[in-house]
Structure formats: structure tokens, C-alpha cells
Design a protein that fits this description.
This protein has 354 residues and is α/β, with parallel strands linked by helices. The chain has 13 helices and 10 strands. It folds into 2 domains: 17-253, Aldolase class I (TIM Barrel); 266-352, Chorismate mutase (Chorismate Mutase Domain, subunit A), CATH 1.20.59.10. The chain binds phosphoenolpyruvate and manganese (II) ion. Residues 23, 49, 53, 106-107, 133, 163, 200 line the site of phosphoenolpyruvate.
Length: 354
């Protein structure tokens, strides 16, 4: 993809791009008050949901088109850029007509290629920046597919938003971060900026700071944070919104590490990691060869591939050994099971060879 920068005038390269504002636009006063406070803290991009995708009917589904007039006022009065979520053609047309500066595609919409294509078609011929949230399910291809659909419509200011992945079990996070997914997106599409949405990942205001820091440590390009002057009275996502003042403290406390400067000692350490990986690969290849010899032996002696007792022993002993070496038992179990599965596959091939 050949993208243009989504950095808007006034934004500083090397500093995280920050988008903030309420989950939902509720009233004109709430929108203006939030924007005014955020502006006072130096925030330049204001977000507010006008059309809200809600889990159950009967919840507050957004103020609709009327809210676009309030966003217009934020632009006129404070000179901020404004962003809102679009989920269909009508939303795109209305938002463009109202002069919205940035659009985002929500997680539920990204999960539906028909809906993303509809939005892409409506965007054809425009050059408005579009931010694409990850789909609710942890499917990187689906996320990439949505980025491609918007790109193919001619949009060149594109960024991704990592907002976590829904799970049945909401113990710590509202949406599990699965950081490896945005990291893999970065590897596959290094040109696409990635913002983090700590509000929807954490689901609780105490987690907004720590998750934002994690995102900075992983070189994310910015943050989109739900902010409300009176979070406990918000009409949606009450628990995860922070006040503009809290947001300001969170941002001031962020440590932005210099990732471009690779010190010599880091290079040396990386070389050691490369070496370790080489050893690991060589050892794994050797283990596979031995396992194949065992397969051959089993075939000649008419033995079953899976010797359950032996497998159980291996797992138990190795876990104990790994724990003594300071590693987590669960981690080693996952690794060993993957290796064992591949060994069994090799042995099956040998058995089935004539
Ligand atoms: C939102 O940003 O308010 C929102 C609805 O987010 P998501 O699509 O990530 O659930
Ligand atoms: Mn929300």
C-alpha cells in the first residue's frame, strides 16, 4: 500500500497522535464542554459516536444526524478536527456533508465484509482519513481485508485501531488485547499507522493508563481515548471513560521510548537472540529426524504411533524441569504439545508410506 500520512497540521511526528472525546455525543452541552476541556489540554482531534452499535435494542443508540451539527460547532468554535464512526452509506454521506474530518469503522462493522464494501463504495473519490478498528473476533485477515477494501476505493490516509478482541470471559479486560495480532499487522503492513484504543480494551478507567503505556512500548503511533466530563453519568460505556483532566495526567505520565536509536549493546543482545534461535531450529530439526527414525522402527515392529504413557511422562517431566529453570509450565506445555503433534504427523506419514 502506498499511503499518505494521516498526521494533520499541527501534529508532531514522533509524538503519539491523540484522539479523545466521549463514547457518544449526548447533548450539545456535553459535546461542547468535553471539547472545550480537551482543547485546553492541547488535544486537537475530537471523537464522538453519533450512531452507536449497541448489543441490545433499547439501549441508547446515539443521537443520530443532529449530533453532526454539534461536531460542526466544535470545529467552528475551537478549531479542532472531528471524528465519528460510520457503519453504512447514509452515515458516510451525512458525515461528509457535515464536514467531519476523520471517519472510523467500528469493530462490529469490520467483521462484516459486505458492510465494509458498502462504506468503501460510498468513500470512492474522497480523501478523508479513515481509521479501521480490528474486527471483534481475532482474525487478522479480516482486519487486513477491511484495510484493503478502503484502500481499493482510493482512500490513501488510512490507519488501523487496535481495540482488543471480544471473549466470553471478561476477567481483566473487556476485550482481550492479543498484542501479537497488531504486531503481526505491523510486520505485514509496516506503512499502516496503528493507534490503540485502551478504553475498549480495558473496559475500566484504571486500565486506560497502563494499556496506553504498553501501546507506546510497542511503538503504536497514537491513542484514541474515550473521555467524558462526568464519566459516571455517561449514556454509554460509563466505566471506561476518563475525564479530560485524567486523560491529561495519563498522557503526561507516558514514557515515549526512542525506538529508532539502536544502541550497540542492543545490537549485541539481538545477535545473541539470533544465535539462540539458530540453535533452537537445529535442535528441532534433529529431534524431528530422530522421531522419524522412531516412526520407522514402530512401523517395522507393528507398533502403534501414540504410546500414551510415554507421552504423558514426557510432558510431566519436561514441565517440572522447565519450572526448575524458571519458565512457566503452561508455556512449555504448549510448546511441547506443538512439537509432539508435528512428530506424530511425521510418523503417520511414514506409517502410511508403502
Ligand atoms: C466506539 O469507539 O465507541 C466503539 C463503538 O468502539 P468499537 O467499535 O471498538 O466497539
Ligand atoms: Mn464506546
Amino acid at each position: 500500500m502506498e499511503l499518505q500520512s494521516i498526521l494533520l497540521p499541527g501534529m508532531v511526528p514522533g509524538r503519539p497522535l491523540v484522539i479523545a472525546g466521549p463514547c457518544s455525543a449526548e447533548t450539545e452541552e456535553q459535546v461542547m464542554e468535553t471539547a472545550r476541556q480537551l482543547h485546553g489540554f492541547g488535544i486537537r482531534i475530537f471523537r464522538a459516536g453519533i450512531w452507536k452499535p449497541r448489543t441490545k435494542p433499547g439501549s441508547f443508540e446515539g443521537v443520530g444526524k443532529e449530533g453532526l451539527l454539534w461536531l460542526k460547532r466544535v470545529k467552528e468554535k475551537l478549531g479542532m478536527y472531528v471524528a465519528t464512526e460510520v457503519a453504512n452509506t447514509r452515515h458516510v454521506h451525512d458525515a461528509l456533508a457535515a464536514g467531519v474530518d476523520i471517519l472510523w469503522i467500528g469493530a462490529r462493522t469490520t467483521a462484516n465484509p459486505f458492510a465494509v464494501q458498502e462504506i468503501a463504495d460510498a468513500l470512492e473519490g474522497t480523501d478523508i482519513p479513515v481509521l479501521i478498528k480490528n474486527p471483534v473476533n481475532p482474525d487478522l485477515d479480516l482486519w487486513i481485508g477491511a484495510l484493503e477494501r478502503i484502500y481499493n476505493a482510493g482512500v490513501r490516509k488510512i490507519a488501523a485501531i487496535h481495540r482488543g478482541f471480544s471473549s466470553y470471559d471478561e476477567k481483566i479486560y473487556r476485550n482481550l488485547p492479543f498484542w501479537h495480532i497488531p504486531i503481526e499487522l505491523r510486520r505485514l503492513m509496516p506503512e499502516v499507522p496503528i493507534l490503540c484504543d485502551p478504553s475498549h480494551i480495558g473496559g475500566k478507567r484504571e486500565l486506560v493508563g497502563p494499556i496506553s503505556q504498553q501501546a507506546m512500548d510497542l511503538n503504536f503511533d497514537g491513542l484514541i481515548v474515550e473521555t467524558h466530563p462526568n464519566p459516571d453519568k455517561a449514556w454509554s460505556d460509563t466505566k471506561q471513560q476518563v475525564t479530560p483532566e485524567m486523560l491529561n495526567s495519563i498522557l503526561n505520565a507516558l514514557v515515549i521510548r526512542d525506538t529508532h536509536q539502536t544502541t550497540e549493546s542492543l545490537t549485541a543482545l539481538r545477535r545473541q537472540i539470533d544465535e539462540c534461535d539458530n540453535h533452537l531450529l537445529e535442535l528441532l530439526a534433529r529431534r524431528m529426524r530422530i522421531s522419524e527414525e522412531i516412526g520407522q522402527y514402530k512401523k517395522e515392529h507393528n507398533m502403534a504411533i501414540l504410546q500414551e504413557q510415554r507421552y504423558d511422562e514426557i510432558i510431566q517431566n519436561r514441565i517440572a524441569q522447565a519450572e526448575q529453570m524458571g519458565m512457566k509450565g503452561d508455556f512449555i506445555k504448549t510448546v511441547l504439545m506443538a512439537i509432539h503433534e508435528e512428530s506424530v504427523r511425521h510418523q503417520m506419514e511414514i506409517m502410511n508410506k508403502l
